[in-house]
Amino acid sequence: MNTVAEATLKRPGSLEKNPRLSRWLRVNRDGTISISSGKVEIGQGILTALAQIAAEELGVALERIQMIPADTSRSPDEGVTSGSLSIQDSGTALRQACAQALALLLARAAMRLGASIADLRVVDGTVHAGHRSTSFWECSDEGLLDCDVDMELPLKGPRDYRVVGQPAPRRDLPDKVSGRPRFLQDMVLPGMLYGRVVRPEYGFTKLVSVDGSKAESIPGFVAIVRDGDFLGVLAEREATAVAAQRILRSTAEWEKAEPLPRDIHAWLKEHAIDHRVISEKSDAGAKCRSAKILEVSYTKPYISHASIGPSCALARFEAGKLTVWSHSQGIFNLRADLSKALRMPKDAIVVRHAEGSGCYGHNGADDVALDAALLARAAGGRPVLLQWMRDDEFGWAPCGPAMALTLRAALDAEGNITDWQHELWSNGHSARPGRSDHPALLAAWHIANPFSRPSAINMPLPAGAADRNSIPLYEFPNQRVVNHYVREMPVRTSALRSLGAYANVFAIESFMDELATAAQMDPVAFRLRHLKDPRACAVIEKVARRANWSGWRSEEGRGHGLAFAKYKNLGAYCAVAAEVRIDHEVRVTRLVVAVDVGLVINPDGVINQIEGGAIQSTSWTLKEQVRLGSHGIASLGWEDYPILKFSEVPSVEVELIDRPDFPAVGAGEAAQGPVAAAIANAVAHALGVRVRDLPLTHDRIVAAMGQAT
Amino acid sequence: MPERFGFSVNGVATEIVASPDTPLLYVLRDDLGLKGSRFGCGSGQCGACFVLLDNHAVPSCDTPLWSIAGKSVVTVEGLAKDGELHPLQRAFLDEQAAQCGYCTSGILISAAALLQSNPAPTEADVRAALDRNLCRCGSHNRVVRAVMRAAVETAS
What we know:
The complex is a heterodimer. Chain A contains 19 helices and 24 strands. By secondary structure, chain A is of the alpha+beta class.
């Protein structure tokens, strides 16, 4: 069975919307090949993996592949770089495109050499027929690839791969370890001004007044830019822009927004407006056998993206045209919303991708692009570089939504789950640009002729959003899963790495352990008993073996736990074993992760993504919660929003199960949910007490122990 | 009001005329074009802007220009010598010890300061020395391996 071949139907992935071959690649005279993907580098190493795919299918050395940064004026429109879909969307498209380019190049070479294609011998782009030779670089011209990808061509089989499946060093790292300018934050254009946006440290409805006189007196001050309730400042130097911003903020007066709810999880349960049953199974016979019923509730707080570098954009208005450099995940969608917010035609805007700090979802990248554009519009043709300050980022970027969950299950006398119910309450998990008539850009809601703020929505199942991974992969005879959608947003929410999967998997896998305890069964055996999917069983068995699950020796204050999920119920299989030690706080000492992403493109890239996801999820699970003040987010610096430090990071061991016959799927989000639940299960194992509210801080543990006694 | 300040940057005598309270970070990035030190928080809490000041790792975002007069500053750009990467930089490439890389410069500076004072650190020493540097992508363990590797390679 070759499922890879089955997955590559005609026009796979992003080719459907972007069939033109010349949009994807160009063969250059200098012996290089330029590849244009619409997917963008956000620190996950995607451009390296896509270069590997292109080199493999074209049969050329990896070094010949140049990855062109995405640009709305020439790249294929591949939507958003999100959801761990880049390998599926862009990778499969590139394979097909490169296969057709190779066929066209070989046909041209055969013609030039007066030989048949079957007689050609190709080595790294040089084509030999007998003693004569030519090359891809000589054969290609403007017209050759100017056609649609429409040929039914056999693709290379995974067993012939030489570049794909091998570790490849990241292409961006030499610049990054040398300190060379590489990030958007480092760009300099002639005549460039520095901008800062001025927003208060709380939610507001109106800018009442601002006194610019003190800021204007700083040497190098250029202008205050006000558009309705939007306020920004321009300066010749960055330090001046920062100083002016601080002064303006302290002298401006805003009208405060409505107070925030005190108990956000209770509030969510009271404010749901749509109640959707998303999975239902019933078997009355099985239900009759129910002997024991458990019902518990779990919560997850708002979580911040907390990238190390605040969001940044560079914008320039020239002759009625706007060019924006952005580290947005979706440059085409950003262009669409800039066009709405600035009330100018889409054709007059080009958005170019440039690398920013690590990105884990819909952060401030898009918002800051409009901020920069508004300042550039007032800058008389001079380009404007604008980076948010740390408190802009913590206070104004969208958060990953808070969630409340209630699970109920019944066990029969033999320890089988006979009934399973899962209810979740949450805001939507996506308020990305490009999806509504109203721009999803912060400043658009503050300018003189403002737009209303679109509500966060949920994408449909099976991938889902708030309800992502809420339907268990286990086989239960009775099952009911309900998604209670809350439209009103006291805190702005949008997509954060793995969306609802983090909380849903945390709840499901915590509850599986609670049920295993009630059934007096080992958690591994209990899971395997309820699973049929062999790939799911394989990752659980692998992780249990590697972590020496059955050889665990009890020790005061130590515990271990295990959890599993198949990301989105469509993607990577991932099982995690966590070991913890508890003294004053929870300390995760070891994580073992087994993962099956189908065909592995870059093993080191997958391991890096899994390690990173596991460590970030450990940080979320142990430490992170956005603090709410009376009128807005109160955690505006690292002192209020601590993340995991070097000395607190556990060892992470990753086991890859390579399955070259299954389609490659993404790795970036697979570990988020299972890590959280594995840690929670380890904490319960160590203490004999269950903590059901994230994060698992000292205070939470003390509270849970108090309730238990 | 702007004043004149003299100090050394990566071994080169440098003079800057600017307001005394200008953060060193902006002088490095905007006056001297050294973009390797990066803005993260503006209050010395994340490490992205770290530089060596007389061999100590300090946050340049929180270091006013007046305080460095007559001192020696080394930035990430100054770690390489005669076109050869510093052993730490080579080790970071060998271990692929980064994801987004925004925090990398500051971590290299903290690690360089550590190896100057403690050429044979334990893993716990490395982690403790890097606790002032935040990394959000989760590259910590690769970074620790890279620093240990650089220490071994420097010693041999």
